[in-house]
Design a protein that fits this description.
heterodimer, A: 113 residues, 4 helices, B: 161 residues, mainly alpha, 2 domains, 6 helices, 3 strands, 57% helix
Amino acid sequence: MTGAGLPVWAALLVVGLALTGAAFSLTGAIGLIRLRTFYERVHAPTLGATLGMALILCSSVLLLSLIEGRLVLRDLLIGVFLTVTTPVTLLLLARAAAHRDRHEGRPGAPPKS
Amino acid sequence: MRLLPHPWLSAGLALAWLLLNAPVTPGSLLLALAVGLTVPAVMNALQARPVRVKAPGALLRLAGIVLVDMVRSNIDVARIILGRQTGARRTGFVAIPLDLREPFALSLLSIILTATPGTLWVQYDSDTGRLLLHVLDFPDGEAWIRRVKDRYERPLMEIFA
């Protein structure tokens, strides 16, 4: 089956999942602009790395499985690797910001633990 | 030396190989076995301690809890971002005294806290076991400490006891 031969219900489901996921990712990007401090902003992009990513991958798995006529799960590996590696980036960013803010004695600096 | 020093890593690698090379053929099955048996040997160079999962059932239950929390906090944070900035929301740092010491369980906790938007892992001090968390919307610091300890830390300690 090709993409054009997809039944309407499946096409709607695939598009719905992909668009919802994209909407969450876009919300995360908007959050980067709207939120004020660094520590608040770091929260925003995780929307795209978690639920946004999961919904888009669901959509992709569904589409590929229907087209190829069998269960295609290899996209789930993207989710696994993204989930495992995102904390590393965020941790480094947060540590660097905390170090800078404490060193410069800024008002919003995290308390020393 | 045992045949499988890191059984979970071996299983994960073989499964990833099969997923990438689906549909399964005898050839890819053979290669997946070879990958699962040989590649974990590099972990010896890193001197990683093997992971022991004591309670697989608790692991599944924790995965379910995290999945629900992930969806819920995604919606919460999206609402905060798209809503009007009223100024009623309070953000701040919470210091959580952790009893968890197992490195693998701690990294799993950092993945969980990152996967739920609204919580940011800022710093962990391995001497005191104190974790500094930044919370986007926190009405009550005490409630957050209980939430992390009850919902995530206790199951993790049960799993990797």
